[in-house]
Amino acid sequence: MTDPMKTLDDSDRPAPTLVSQKTYAIAGISVTVHGLEELHSTTKNVACLWLLHPRLASQERMAGIAASAIGDWNSNPQSKSTKGLIAVSFDQRNHGKRLVDPLANEAWRQGNPRHAQDMFSVFRECLVGWAAYKFPSSMAKVLKLIIRSRGHGERYISTHGLSCIIHLPK
Amino acid sequence: MDYLASFIFPNDEHLISENLVLGVSLGGHAAWSCLLHDPRMTAGVIIIGCPDYLNLMVDRARLSKLPSWTKSSPPGSEILGSEAFPFSFVETVKRYDPASLFLGAMDSVSKSTSSASSTKSPGPARDSPLPEPTAKEKEQLRPLLSKCLAGKRILNISGGSDKLVPYHRGEVFLTWFKKAIAADGWFGDGGVTFEDIIDQSAGHEVTANMADEAIRFISETLAVGNQGKERRGSVRESKI
After folding, report:
1. Between A31, A50, A107, which is nearest B21 by CB?
2. How far is B127 from chain A (nearest CA, A)?
3. Is the dihedral of CA A8, A31, B43, B25 positive or negative?
4. B64 Cβ partners below 8 Å, 6+ apart?
5. Domain range summary for chain A, segments of one domain joined by +
6. Dihedral sign (CA B37, B42, B48, B52)
């Protein structure tokens, strides 16, 4: 697969003005936050644009779109009066610095027999780990039972019985 | 998403008041998933992604001449449940993938209703138009669509000449979806805004026109804010 972002790089679309980038290690993942320095200190609300890169790429490939989106919004007076905009990029599972097995990113034709499972699991789990995992309510009930029967560990079940973050001791 | 604000605004200098997602290709499939399954994600841009994973990948299996496809007679008839698509995996896809999730909800109604045999069960290859859901199916779908997508804004951008993620692999679902969410559709009160843009000459690539549309949509979404909360659904189709 050729890099789908290359067409944009090679186009005559004017390159966006660069915006600030700051890197954080969040939940074990290197996260780049674009546009923090450009926020107005008086604007309380901030919208966050999560950028998800293509297969076989890495988070750096999304920096251009981050700069374009932030530059465009910041040219609107509302960016000062109502809300600011930041963008976040990070390596998808098994990509960039999170690479574990190069073959798992390849397709059937390139010799990966688990192409369908690999691709789906990589993208489906993209925000899990920082997003609270959503369980159907029936599953939450089962989990409550399990937790009660274990009788220990940190646990949290939201009042809706939908979000669960569970850390049981080894 | 749970932790970002506490890292970047440790003194609560700002509040992350809304979340948007933009994904390309694999990231585009992911963007659909984030939109559906995270209530905090209120708008999204999908560039060259597909909302119907099984329909896309089963066809890719055919084009790749996988043994799992060729060994059965007729070819492909046993692709689901083969090594390429174990049933355990198909079940996972049905929980999260837009087409499999919503159309699967229709399936479950038709299976439990003996008189619903007129409803064509969407198999692995979705090539023909889907009927409007029956009243019973709508009853099943409405809470699901509300939970996943009500009030959200979505821009779907595809390449008209994309051979890796062809538009037509998601088209059957998208046509069904657009009929449902349109202002005069049966889920018109769900307030979903959907733009379906095809860059006709583009392959599996991000063109300057696509980037322009994406940036325009993001800024429009931010400008609209909560003003549109009570609006009806809308569908815009455009070829560029």
Report:
1. A50
2. 20
3. positive
4. A107, A108, A109
5. 6-131, 134-167
6. positive
- What is the distance of C-alpha B222 from the center of its chain? 22
**Of residues B2, B24, B215, nearest to A131 (C-beta):** B2
Judging contacts by C-beta atoms under 8 Å, the chain B residues touching residue A85 are: 218, 222
How big is chain B, counted in residues?
Answer: 240
Per-residue confidence band for B114, with pLDDT thresholds at 50, 70 and 90: very low
pLDDT tens string B182-206: 999 999 999 999 999 999 999 999 9
Domains along chain B with CATH numbers:
4-52+148-239 (3.40.50.1820)
Between B230 and B86, whose confidence is greater? B86
B8 with A11: Cβ contact below 8 A = no
> A116 is written with which tokens?
């369908």
The helix or strand, by DSSP H or E, that contains position A142, with its residue range, turns out to be helix A137-150
* A69/B7 touch (CB, cutoff 8 Å), yes or no: no
The pLDDT value recorded for residue B111 is 54
> Model confidence over A91-112: pLDDT tens digits?
999 999 999 999 999 999 999 9
Instruction: Tokens 């290709």: give the residue.
Output: B25
